[in-house]
Amino acid sequence: MIVVRGSGYLFDHQIRYPVWEASNPVLQRWLETLNLGGVILLGGSGAELLLRTQQLQEWSKTPLFIAADIEEGVGQRFSGATWFPPPMALGEIAKNDLDLGISYAQEMGKITAHEALSIGINWLLTPVVDVNNNPDNPVINIRSFGDTPDIVSALVTAFIEGAKNYPALTTAKHFPGHGDTVSDSHLNLPIINHDNERLESLELMPFQAAIEAKVDSVMTAHLLINAWDNENPATLSKPILTGKLREKLGFEGLIVTDALVMGGVANFADAEEVAVKAVEAGADVLLMPDDPEKAINAVYNAVESGRLTRERIEASVRRIWQAKQKIFNQEKPDLSIYNLSQPTARQTVKNILKYSLKTNNKTLEKVSSNTPKRNLIVVDDLLNADFLDRQMPGVIIPKYLGYDLQLVDQNTLDNVLDDNRSTLLQIFLRGNPFRGSAGFNENSKSFYHNLLKKSIVHGLIIYGSPYILDWFKTQINEELSWVFSYGQMAESQAIACQILFNLSASELGNISESLGDVFI
């Protein structure tokens, strides 16, 4: 009933999050002695993951769940595999062509499950089922398929149907709906004050659709839903997990908590009490408890004292065993490390990017070759910008056209206004866990306002959040050329730059030696 966090890298000196990821000796001891249910992984390449997952399975006496948060495909977390645009890109397509959006969502589910199993991941902690109807949501944001329950339900169903082609588990998250919050449950406990009618007609609708599509598991949200339980977060609430999810919605699969180290529950009670209350509420799997040994002992002692019954534990174990039967007892066709990022998968990514892209179709004003020009790239955090390096299209294409790179993040904007060169502005910004905000802070807004007032920005590309684009539309004149893309990966940069600069096939051909055909 316990799933712990581990590094996807093979060696301890590569561990990136030592607070959460146990060293190899500790992880091996846990797997050999505690009968853990699984490991959730982050980091490493797709090829490395194949070795890592084999290593973990060999250490464990019981076949393991190997889980990963791969909401944007395996390549989101493990380099070399297919990295899809955020789910909201599919929602954008579905607004204009629902059938096309459904088709791509189904293909995304199929490719994600196929690639995951090819490297040993058998539990997909996706799709996100939350309806992001709050633009200021700092943690769900473009991880959601959209802001209406109809579109989210349709695309979630399609993703699950696609994933069913392979024996990997899918997960609907975050129950009962994290889409209308203005705080991040990684940091603190969001409070939802909607009444029962609103919750059932909006937030629960996509979960019902996912259950009808036979989703394998549902992940809980660390939210206080006052209409249903004004004392306990949903993760620790029997009225919500057992009453709403099990009894009202009829869900019979696995209930897995969101990470128990997150502030939304970790600040609510001590770790041992959180573990017991989650099982008491109806959770089958405890994800990332602070200390698995303490969590196991706490649940064991609760059974010994009579607070938890043996029948309650046995019910969870039966569901876990049934889920593992699906993973380990079904034939896995055509699984190979060489399945990662196949041409058809990459073409699907490009198609989603192209059909979800937004632009005002204004021709970019040509700047004289003698005029000093800069490619001003702003990222959220320079230390966490894996989507950007010297050879990425967002750097190489403008460089080929005479733009000098200036790379800053939202904390290092101070001296940018002193530069009066003609400017291409590229912004990489989206909602992400642990950041605590969905977009700009007031200082950033003031900076962009002052930059635009100087009238030196002649081209704008925004990668990530459409809510950032909405703000910019209130600041720019109608003649400024702009492009918006949901994705931040190389393919997204190539497509956006091609459109903004109106590059012909021959011009792209001249640049392709630097970029490689994979991006164009």
Q: What is the overall shape?
A: globular
The beta-strand count equals 16
Percentage of residues assigned to helices: 40-55%
Largest sheet features = 6 strands, mixed
Number of helices: 17
Radius of gyration: 23 Å
Q: What is the topological layout?
A:
Elements lengths: L1 E6 L16 H10 L4 E5 L3 H14 L5 E4 L18 H10 L1 H21 L4 E2 L24 H15 L7 E5 L15 E2 L3 H17 L4 E4 L3 E2 L12 H11 L5 E3 L6 H4 L4 H11 L4 E2 L4 H14 L4 H20 L13 H14 L1 E2 L13 E7 L13 H8 L3 E6 L12 E8 L12 H12 L3 E8 L1 H8 L7 E5 L4 H11 L4 H11 L5
Parallel strand pairs: 1-2, 1-10, 2-3, 3-4, 5-7, 6-8, 7-9, 12-13, 12-14, 14-15, 15-16
Antiparallel strand pairs: 11-16
Helix pairs in contact: 3-4, 3-12, 4-5, 5-6, 9-10, 13-16
Features:
520 residues, globular, 5-stranded parallel β-sheet, 6-stranded mixed β-sheet, 17 helices, 14% strand, alpha/beta
Q: How would you explain this protein's 3D organization?
A:
- With 520 residues, the chain is an alpha/beta fold.
- The chain is built from 17 helices and 16 strands.
- It has helices at 24-33, 46-59, 87-96, 98-118, 149-163, 196-212, 238-248, 263-266, 271-281, 292-305, 310-329, 343-356, 393-400, 442-453, 466-473, 490-500, 505-515; strands at 2-7, 38-42, 65-68, 123-124, 171-175, 191-192, 217-220, 224-225, 254-256, 286-287, 358-359, 373-379, 404-409, 422-429, 457-464, 481-485.
- The strands form four sheets. Strands 11-16-15-14-12-13 form a six-stranded mixed sheet, sandwiched between helices. Strands 4-3-2-1-10 form a five-stranded parallel sheet.
- Strand 14 (422-429), helix 14 and strand 15 form a beta-alpha-beta unit.
- The mean pLDDT is 92.
